[in-house]
């Protein structure tokens, strides 16, 4: 059975909270205006009635969405500085910059985003963040993280969206990936650029962190070998890029209904030379502020006595919910309570003989990303599905009849399935291949083999990467078994 607070296992009260958050999301993204929200009994605004602002290359009209700020442009405020300060909505009520419970300053990020971004731009960014996830599952992550407080969940979601754009998760970190770093390391004329790329790859070559297998709950396991980190060996910038890259790659390994991960901190051989508070704080912030409800369990394995004082400091930084997920294991028997005994690695005194060995990027493995024509056609098809999902959500929000609402929810789920399948068709055109693609953990179409250890043929992989098939529709037949962490 699905865990509480997930699709298929929501209480009526929880479903109502999801209902309310979708209202606000449709407001801030310009799909639903204040009047529609206030009068939930009104009929939804048909897509065709929202006006047109231009046409796509195929001649299909783009829909104009006039949202809570009533802007008619698609540019951010920095490009079209028309003040909207007088136009307040329920979405802003009670959001204070000086809130003592706002640990990461997300209230200010939220207010700044609504003041400086057009609704159309916010909508586009929200959908980019969804990727292969069911949109409702993504929304539910933020609701659970904020204990079903709709206002706080909205603030967190929009702030996460802004953070992703600020650090360029999709257009830089995941789009450039490992092959870019390899080419920079080899060819960059600027020494700082060369070192940045070298630092990024050095951590993968060391195997400082890697994903291998699943725990007893089916959660993918990420192992962090703390002894391999030495403070000052890599810049903080490269450490942050590495951290985000690994989290984003790991989210592709979640297989429904599993939606959280198991993280093992292997403290074997730990000394104070390995302790580095700055990247640890960044990792904590990522999981608490930007990847909510992503951690299922954290195992700290074979921590030496000197770690006791350090843990008291770290525990004070953690949200109590996150801290409650931390378990200390000291031997194979205790580790085997969480991980199948036969799958515990030999590094952790287990039976799995597999050892991490980094497979270098293959020049040309991202050739499909140059095919912008195919990419744009796939993105256009996805945008049509986004609009369908929004329309069904509007109908769902405004429908009072229980039976009809259930039918609309079923239709929304069907569209979500098409979005998930369509993402995996799009994936090789927008995301650089990773180590896990090269060794066969991540399979085409979104399938995952958590125990793969293939050694790819250079010619075979390069050939596969350079081929450009005909454009597949987003609902093309693909094997889709991965779900999003966010």
From TrEMBL:
The CRAL-TRIO domain is annotated at 193-356
* Ranges of Basic residues composition bias in the record: 61-75
- Region Disordered: list its residue ranges: 33-116, 459-486
Q: Gene3D superfamilies, alphabetically?
A: CRAL-TRIO lipid binding domain (3.40.525.10)
Q: Which InterPro entries match?
A: CRAL-TRIO_dom, CRAL-TRIO_dom_sf, CRAL/TRIO_N_dom, CRAL/TRIO_N_dom_sf, PITP/CRAL-TRIO
Compositionally biased region (Basic and acidic residues)? 94-111
- Kindly list the biological process annotations in GO that this record carries: intermembrane phospholipid transfer
Pfam families reported in the protein's UniProt record: CRAL_TRIO, CRAL_TRIO_N
Compositionally biased spans, kind Low complexity: 461-486
Q: Which SUPFAM superfamilies does its entry note?
A: CRAL/TRIO domain, CRAL/TRIO N-terminal domain
Name of the featured protein: CRAL/TRIO domain-containing protein
Q: Which organism is it from?
A: Pseudomassariella vexata
């Amino acid at each position: 059975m699905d865990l509480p607070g997930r699709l298929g296992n929501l209480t009526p009260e929880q479903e109502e909270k999801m209902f309310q958050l979708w209202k606000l999301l449709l407001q801030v993204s310009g799909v639903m205006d204040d009047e529609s929200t206030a009068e939930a009994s009104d009929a939804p605004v048909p897509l065709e009635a929202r006006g047109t602002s231009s046409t796509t290359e195929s001649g299909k009209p783009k829909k104009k969405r006039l949202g809570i700020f009533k802007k008619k442009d698609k540019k951010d405020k920095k490009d079209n500085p028309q003040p909207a300060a007088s136009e307040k909505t329920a979405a802003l009520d009670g959001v204070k910059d000086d809130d003592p419970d706002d640990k990461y300053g997300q209230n200010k990020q939220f207010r700044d985003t609504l003041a400086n971004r057009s609704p159309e731009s916010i909508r586009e960014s929200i959908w980019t963040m969804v990727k292969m996830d069911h949109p409702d599952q993504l929304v539910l992550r933020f609701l659970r993280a904020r204990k079903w407080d709709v206002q706080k969940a909205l603030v967190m979601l929009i702030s996460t969206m802004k953070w992703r754009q600020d650090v360029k998760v999709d257009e830089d970190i995941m789009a450039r990936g490992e092959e870019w770093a390899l080419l920079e390391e080899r060819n960059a004329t600027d020494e700082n650029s060369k070192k940045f790329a070298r630092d990024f790859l050095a951590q993968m070559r060391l195997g400082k962190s890697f994903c291998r297998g699943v725990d007893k709950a089916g959660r993918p396991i990420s192992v962090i070998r703390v002894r391999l980190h030495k403070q000052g060996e890599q810049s903080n910038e490269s450490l942050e890029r590495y951290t985000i890259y690994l989290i984003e790659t790991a989210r592709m390994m979640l297989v429904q209904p599993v939606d959280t991960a198991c993280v093992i901190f292997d403290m074997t051989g730990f000394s104070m030379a390995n302790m580095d508070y700055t990247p640890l704080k960044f990792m904590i912030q990522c999981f608490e502020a930007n990847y909510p409800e992503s951690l299922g369990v954290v195992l700290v394995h074979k921590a030496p006595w000197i770690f006791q004082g350090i843990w008291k400091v770290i525990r004070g930084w953690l949200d109590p919910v996150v801290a409650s997920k931390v378990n200390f294991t000291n031997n194979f028997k205790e580790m085997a309570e969480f991980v199948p005994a036969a799958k515990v690695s030999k590094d952790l005194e287990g039976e799995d003989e597999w050892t991490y060995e980094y497979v270098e990027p293959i020049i040309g493995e991202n050739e499909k990303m140059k095919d912008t024509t195919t990419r744009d056609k796939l993105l256009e098809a996805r945008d049509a599905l986004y609009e369908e999902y929004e329309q069904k959500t509007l109908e769902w929000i405004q429908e009072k009849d229980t039976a009809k609402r259930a039918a609309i929810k079923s239709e929304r789920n069907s569209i979500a399935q098409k979005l998930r399948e369509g993402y995996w068709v799009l994936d090789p055109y927008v995301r650089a291949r990773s180590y896990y693609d090269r060794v066969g953990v991540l399979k085409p179409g979104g399938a995952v083999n958590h125990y793969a250890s293939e050694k790819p043929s250079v010619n075979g992989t390069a050939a596969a990467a350079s081929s450009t098939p005909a454009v597949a529709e987003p609902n093309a037949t693909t094997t889709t078994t991965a779900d999003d962490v966010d």
